[in-house]
TrEMBL record:
Native species: Roseisolibacter agri
SUPFAM superfamilies with a match to the protein in the record: alpha/beta-Hydrolases
Protein name (database record): Alpha/beta hydrolase
Record GO terms (molecular function): 1-alkyl-2-acetylglycerophosphocholine esterase activity
UniProtKB keywords: Hydrolase, Lipid degradation, Lipid metabolism, Signal
Pfam families the UniProt entry points to: PAF-AH_p_II (PF03403)
Coiled coil regions in record: none
Amino acid sequence: MLARHLLRLATCAVVGAAAPLALFAQMTAPAPTGPHAVGRRLLTWVDSARRDPTDTTHARTITAWLWYPAAKPARVARGDAALQPALDGAWGDLRATASAAKIGDAAAAAMRGLRVHAVTDAPWARDAGRAPVLVFTPGNGWLPTDYGVMLEDLASHGYAVVGVAPAGLADVVVHGDGRVVPKTLGVGAAIADDQRHAHDDVLHVLRQLRALDTASRSPARGRLDLTRVAALGHSLGGTTAIVAAARDTLVRAAMNLDGDAMGAAVLDARPRQPLLFVSSELPAMDEAPAGRDSAWYVLTRQGVERSERRRTGEWARISSRSADARRVRLLGARHLDFTDAALAESLIVGAERRWMRWGPIDGTRALRVTTDLVRAFLDHALLGRPADVLLEHPERRYGELRLVTGDEAGGGPA
């Protein structure tokens, strides 16, 4: 019944957004910059040691996507029409319905029509060698496919990316057996406790990587370099990456894209691996919704500044045992400029909807800068390449980046 109800809602939403959907049906993600084409596969694991909090009659089911370096096709189809949607079928319709509540009907319809460059089940690139592995976790409510621009680009440069979709925390997950799981976890203050389900999902995936590389029927058999594994995420997913590094030494580096530490599991984490924290910029008060009294603006500004001081102190403690911890700020960006929804940011109108979510930076530019920074860090931390100018002096490569140094960057008491 629930699945049918959600499908009816999705159908109504997509039909209601027919005009913008038709207009943006050929919206295309930026092309990956690496030498390889990109493949994508859907993966499923079952953690028999855990009951699923979304349905305790089942063991915890973990759905994920694998992006990987793929062989270039012998004949390249012309035009965007040959590209696949980011998320197809009923799941794509359900996702569009959920997205509309966050980003508006027009932007949700545009993202529903977004064409990406990954090819489902494409053959692995023979010349790619063993791929370093990146385990990615999205922000609360989001899916790995909402970060496809960055993940495709990393795969095109030879990385294998496992993007985990934590059921119950994501807006909607459709398991391989057809079960539709809406968002029931991580709502409001419950996120401090419910985030543990994302932590446990990622830790289980890390334990399954060896089987993914060795099982006879695995699509990645013999393709993974398990001596080079990193964790990455946005928001909730960013702090999940920190927890994964603290708990599993298989993780050689961790990257947090604008994630706020909350709950003991995150606040008490002290990973020793190389760490990268990419922060958005504090919003300007002229971005705030109009019509509020002066006291609201004063209190809001004070709250934003307190939040930044808290975030700085928490990063100092969390990063205190890492010998290579870097914090970089992306000027002009707000919290959701790290998602692919930034591609449709021109359709996200109104101060109420944009406030603290999308900033003045061009969305495509934000994704390009973030992706290049993440790849530079991975190349250094996992592949052992010297830290280039993008890590040492990021503002010289991109004027929107600032290396946060001194007490603000971290290195405080443990």
